[in-house]
């Protein structure tokens, strides 16, 4: 009677879920379906009812099948009281998802039609400011991410800085102080390189499942690895995305370590990012009133990693996020996005779309730049909303040495920017110490910077 009561409670009176499958129940940690006890919980709690993530037992034969067979004849232990009945074992479901080594894309290929509970985001995090009262187009015009044309910096009068370059520096200063986000065009990276980089990441994610599984790992010492949610076991909710991580610098990455599907283009794209990063750090230095080489001399551009995100279509995009609200832990991020959209930045108490702009790259400042500039430049919160139609691909180039450099160099507010009226607001920290703390908390929507405040 307890099981029947629970089933009706969870399915609005019906012992079946909306897909016509029998209700799954978990009593004292034991999961069952149609009278079969499943020793390995490849089972997920959906938004409205409990259901298996796969439509048949053969979808993921490598996960828990043997254990399930062994436990077919076992009886589930009885709960000591109604309160002991567990309807959601988060850790078990996280492990079950992780052990598929197939990521979010694997869930869709297995037939998922609702968002598993481990992906459900808090309502406050799913806020969509485009639905606020008023004219959305007018709001977007008032809150538009700055676009900076870098082509002018190629001009040089042979001494000092030209007026066009000074204008670019001023635009970057304003954007860095008020937004922490801007888009750049005229950056010198050929359009065909941008297009092929996106295509290469699609090939990897949509290609052979065995190749992807071979790269799947949570071992942070691996310079090339594929996974879903780096903070899967730390954060409150998983995000609807899969990621290929490639550490390209400070040490050269052997080409054979990269997936064949994107090997050549990843190397070419990374070389372009190195040159663009050097330019951006020069412009940021000048925007601070410092010599062009100041941030480079601080080795802010020494490390470089590619985070290649794949956001599959989501059956219930209003219930989850592609990426939770967060700031970046690095010095600077350069983002290439396709034309699907979904990136938003938090500005003046509202979420603002960062629309795809043909040929543009999105620049956002990281926590370490906010720290060394003593809050003069901002590390803005941003997120990615899930989409029901259109698989989104983005490639972020993160300028940080974590975790592959042993440097003990400490970073604190730049002394040239301090005064009696503007004392240091942060303690000194190494890149590794900052990143380790950041990663230990996951993408919670709370800035790690507050931990380093004086």
TrEMBL record:
Annotated region (Disordered), positions in chain = 61-81, 123-144
User: Could you tell me where the Basic and acidic residues compositional bias lies?
Assistant: 123-134
- The yes or no answer to whether the keyword Oxidoreductase is present is yes
Which stretches make up the Fe2OG dioxygenase domain? 302-402
One GO molecular function term?
dioxygenase activity
Which keywords label this protein?
Iron, Metal-binding, Oxidoreductase
A single Pfam family it belongs to is 2OG-FeII_Oxy
Would the keyword Calcium turn up in this protein's UniProt record?
Answer: no
InterPro entries listed in its UniProt record: DIOX_N (IPR026992), IPNS-like_FE2OG_OXY (IPR044861), IPNS-like_sf (IPR027443), Oxoglu/Fe-dep_dioxygenase_dom (IPR005123)
Q: Please state which protein family the record places this protein in.
A: Belongs to the iron/ascorbate-dependent oxidoreductase family.
Protein name as catalogued: 1-aminocyclopropane-1-carboxylate oxidase 1
- List the gene name: At1g06620_6
């Amino acid at each position: 009677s307890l099981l029947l009561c629970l089933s009706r409670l969870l399915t609005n009176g019906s012992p079946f879920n909306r897909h016509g499958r029998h209700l799954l129940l978990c009593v004292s940690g034991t999961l069952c379906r149609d009278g079969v006890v499943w020793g390995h919980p490849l089972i997920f709690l959906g938004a409205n009812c409990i259901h298996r993530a796969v439509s048949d037992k053969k979808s993921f034969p490598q996960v828990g099948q043997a254990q399930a067979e062994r436990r077919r004849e076992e009886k589930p232990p009885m709960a000591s009281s109604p309160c002991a009945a567990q309807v959601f074992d988060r850790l078990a479901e996280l492990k079950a998802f992780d052990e598929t080594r197939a990521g979010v894309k694997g869930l869709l290929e297995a037939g998922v039609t609702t968002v598993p509970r481990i992906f459900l985001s808090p309502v406050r995090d799913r806020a969509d400011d485009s639905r606020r009262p008023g004219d959305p187009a007018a709001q977007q015009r008032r809150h538009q991410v700055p676009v900076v044309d870098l082509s002018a910096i190629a001009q040089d009068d042979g001494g000092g800085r030209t007026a066009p370059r000074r204008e670019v520096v001023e635009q970057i200063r304003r954007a860095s102080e008020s937004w922490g986000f801007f888009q750049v065009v005229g950056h010198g990276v050929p359009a065909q390189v941008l297009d092929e980089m996106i295509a290469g990441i699609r090939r990897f994610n949509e290609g052979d499942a065995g190749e992807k599984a071979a790269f799947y790992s949570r071992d942070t010492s691996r310079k090339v690895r594929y996974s879903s949610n780096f903070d899967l076991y730390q954060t409150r909710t998983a995000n609807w995305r899969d990621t290929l991580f490639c550490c390209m610098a400070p040490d050269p990455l052997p080409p054979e370590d990269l997936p064949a599907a994107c090997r050549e283009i990843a190397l070419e794209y990374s070389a372009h990012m190195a040159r663009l990063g050097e330019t951006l750090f020069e412009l940021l230095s000048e925007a601070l009133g410092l010599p062009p080489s100041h941030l480079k001399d601080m080795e802010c551009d020494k490390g470089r990693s590619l985070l290649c995100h794949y956001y599959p279509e989501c059956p219930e995009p209003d219930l989850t996020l592609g990426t939770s609200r967060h700031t970046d832990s690095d010095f600077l991020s350069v983002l290439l996005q396709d034309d699907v959209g979904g990136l938003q930045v938090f500005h003046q108490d509202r979420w603002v779309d960062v629309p795809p702009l043909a040929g543009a790259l999105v620049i956002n400042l990281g926590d370490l730049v906010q720290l060394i500039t003593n809050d003069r430049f901002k590390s803005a919160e941003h997120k990615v909303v899930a989409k029901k139609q259109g698989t989104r691909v983005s490639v972020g180039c993160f300028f940080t040495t974590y975790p592959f450099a042993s440097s003990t160099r400490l970073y604190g507010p730049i002394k040239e920017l301090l005064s009696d009226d503007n004392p240091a607001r942060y303690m000194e920290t190494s890149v590794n110490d900052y990143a380790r703390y950041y990663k230990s908390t996951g993408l919670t929507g709370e800035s790690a910077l507050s931990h380093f405040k004086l």
